[in-house]
Write a structure and sequence with these properties.
This protein is of the alpha+beta class. A 6-stranded antiparallel barrel has the order 2-3-6-7-5-4. The radius of gyration is 29 Å and the shape is globular. It starts with a helix and ends in a 13-residue tail after the last strand.
Length: about 200
């Protein structure tokens, strides 16, 4: 066999090895993708998904709050974590059954063990008197009965009488005692009320 023929055979064998190697690599890559798909399916099995949910919270036969969301996800393996990836709306009611405030956000998560609820993305709180709070983050601590956050927040008083901004804040659940950090803004007094009040 001539040297040229040997070189051609070696070249052909090298080409076959490269093609086989590439085929095996593609096959392995496809197998890995299949494994990932199966893993994702198994992960989804650990999530209980409910569509179009509405929950009513009552105390002493009086409705205190109503939660609605397009989708709710419960994670049984994560000890009481509930997630609202498609947004949530919570309406609160006073003792007479009138709506006192509402909280809306594009995302929310409830951690039952820590008794902590977090709202994120386009968080808006509407008070019954027309006052509005806007932020990108809000936490509700059920143990301490307070709202707080660590991001900039805007408080717009009813009738356009004032607007305040803060770098963060904490407050009681009715927003009557608000402590804002680095707060700035303006207020226009009316009648006998010289100091601003929010939510009343």
């Amino acid at each position: 066999m001539s040297l040229t023929s040997k070189n051609r055979i070696k070249s052909l064998l090298s080409t076959i090895n490269i093609v086989l190697g590439a085929s095996l690599f593609i096959a392995c890559e496809n197998d890995l993708k299949d494994v990932e798909k199966i893993a994702n399916i198994q992960q989804e099995e650990n999530v209980n998904i409910s569509k179009g949910v509405t929950f009513t919270y009552s105390d002493s036969a009086k409705v205190k709050a109503e939660l609605t969301s397009p989708e709710m996800r419960e994670y049984p393996d994560s000890v009481g974590i509930i997630e609202f990836k498609k947004g949530v709306l919570i309406r609160f009611f006073d003792d007479k059954g009138a709506e006192s405030q509402r909280v809306k956000s594009d995302y929310a998560r409830q951690k039952n063990k820590e008794q902590l609820t977090e709202f994120r993305k386009n968080v808006v709180i509407n008070m019954a008197n027309g006052s509005i709070i806007k932020t990108e983050e809000l936490f509700y601590d059920e143990k301490k009965k307070i709202y707080y956050n660590t991001l900039p927040i805007v408080f717009d008083l009813k009738d356009g009488r004032g607007s305040f901004q803060a770098t963060s804040f904490h407050s009681d659940t009715e927003f009557k005692k608000i402590d804002g950090q680095n707060m700035t803004g303006y207020y226009i007094p009316q009648g006998e009320q010289q100091l601003p009040s929010f939510g009343r």
